[in-house]
Amino acid sequence: MSIQFQPTALVGAIALALGSTSSVFAETTPKAKTSLETIVVTATRSEEKIENVPARINVIEPAKLEQSPIASLPHLLQNDASINMVQTGGLGQQASIFLRGTESDHTLVMRDGVRLNTPSQGSPSIQFIDTTDLKQIEILKGPASVLYGTDAIGGVIHLVSKSPSKTGAFITGEIGEHQTYKSLVGADLYENGVYAQIRGQRLESDGTQVTNLKDTQIQAGSYDQKGFSTKLGIEKEQYAASIDYSENSGRSQYINDNETYTGIKNFSQDFKNEFINLKGRVNLTEDLSINARLSQFKDDLEQNESQDSVYNKTREAELYSKWQFTHAQNILAGVVYKNTESDVLNGVGLYGVDYLKDVSSTGYFIQHQYQSDNLQTQAGLRVEDNETFGSHTVGQLAARYQLLPQTSIYSNIGTAFRAPSNNDLYALSWGGNPELKSEESVSYEIGLDQIITDHLTLGLSAYRNEVDNLISWDNGKNNNVNEATLTGGELDLNWKKDDLLLKASYAYVQPKNKVTDADLPRRPRQSLTITSGIQNEVYGVSTSLSAKSKPKDGSGVGGYATIDVNAYWNVTPNVKLFTNIQNIGDVEYKTASASQWGSDIYYINGGRLASAGVTFKY
Questions:
Q1: 1 occurs within a structural domain
Q2: pTM listed for this prediction
Q3: Distance CA 92, CA 126 (A)
Q4: How many domains is the chain partitioned into structurally?
Q5: DSSP E strand stretches across 29-154
Q6: How far is CA 141 from CA 138, 248, 587, in A?
Q7: Domain range holding 143?
Q8: Is the pLDDT of residue 470 over 80?
Q9: What does the alpha-carbon distance between residue 120 and residue 208 come to, in Å, rounded to a whole number?
């Protein structure tokens, strides 16, 4: 492992941390008694107790999300052992999700049901997504194309936003190393089911070096962003409606190694993402409800040293109903229309890309669910009609059975797909091929959840995911040529007694290219996360370990282990002090190769970030 501690610099970080105090990592795995209050929506598209879901789903809860405004979405996600988060530097640098060994564009990221994966690349720009107003993050593992369509081969990461439940206001400030600070302000109004919410935020950071190249001409990856969000709505038993708007914009400095043979250079880019979501629900009877959604997500990027730009837009219209036709059974059925548009300019001449394309698709889905005291089942089917690759059908069967009072088992089998991105199809000088077929997968999983004592629970799961028609460069253009098998398992232990807690999660995966039998790049086989601490309504202190083994892909990237420390103190009901140290040992490790010309230059992680802050609330 590549673990390089810097004791002298650490002294200052510890001093800063002890000057205030901070919070406990709150990631919950589905267990019987310890998770009765955890409600999720991603697995079934309606509220469900997490212990009833016939799949593995983890939740990053409010205690973690509210602990550090500075903490980015990539940093939050790396605490899940099943995810390998590859980020080429610190705040604002490019980040990729590899969930259960699948590709970086095989995980669907959503916010309140709206897809955030960009149509140009097929993967989301998670480094630019703000987490200010999130209630929780749900990580559903395994195929989910029946309910959500393309991109959900590895799973779904669902960002669930807050809705006001009382009137109040707050202001938060956090300041840390590398001239990093973030400020938040917000207000909520709530009266008899009618609510309004507004949030504003600003983040600035000088950033850190993004490669192991110690060159004074190469500046750190500075980052700044600002944004706001607002939500208006009404929530009644018979009906509900809401409109949600948010935007986040800023500038990110980075380095690029694609300048022919001139080496690595500094560049900067301006980004802006905009989210609009209009939702409604009507209960026609006690047993039948109809839901509708209109949404638009824009993700724009402009280079400041050139005319290069990428403008992405995804529009969706969805209508679905849920019919509880018996006490134990319901049917969910719906239709969703999606239009994606990409306007891309990157480079000029033979190797440049310049296109403006849009692709439309319509998906029809149905799901049957049975729920009794001892048995929960799901069976679903989806037909996706895409104007580019034609019709595609996926299905899923899943069940969870309460074998004994302290033991439940589950199993599922499902197929999923990823439609080619607009770059795959239309970036002709990069190998774009309009004749591409969708990537396809079939996945099998079994799992067990066991209550060992009143305070200790265990979760086990094993899976195999077979992916066909992987899109790869072949003979000068993109073709469906590769196949992969992803075989793995996960172990979760959770202990909690009074205010004390200990959580451990271990994940193992063999990410094999089925043709060559070589490991797929950027996938460590082993991952481990451990969190221990004490937390209550007044104070909390915790320590979290995240460790990855060295990938077996010959890339030169090593394994690593980092430790975060968090603490908080609710001085009064209106004042909270907190502090956080990400990567307390200032461990430096390689994340990916930074040069296509064979030099020994690598992107590295963002290093330590110690911070402290205060929240005033009314």
A1: no
A2: 0.93
A3: 9
A4: 1
A5: 39-40, 48-49, 56-60, 83-87, 95-99, 107-111, 114-115, 134-141
A6: 10, 28, 29
A7: 7-617
A8: yes
A9: 28
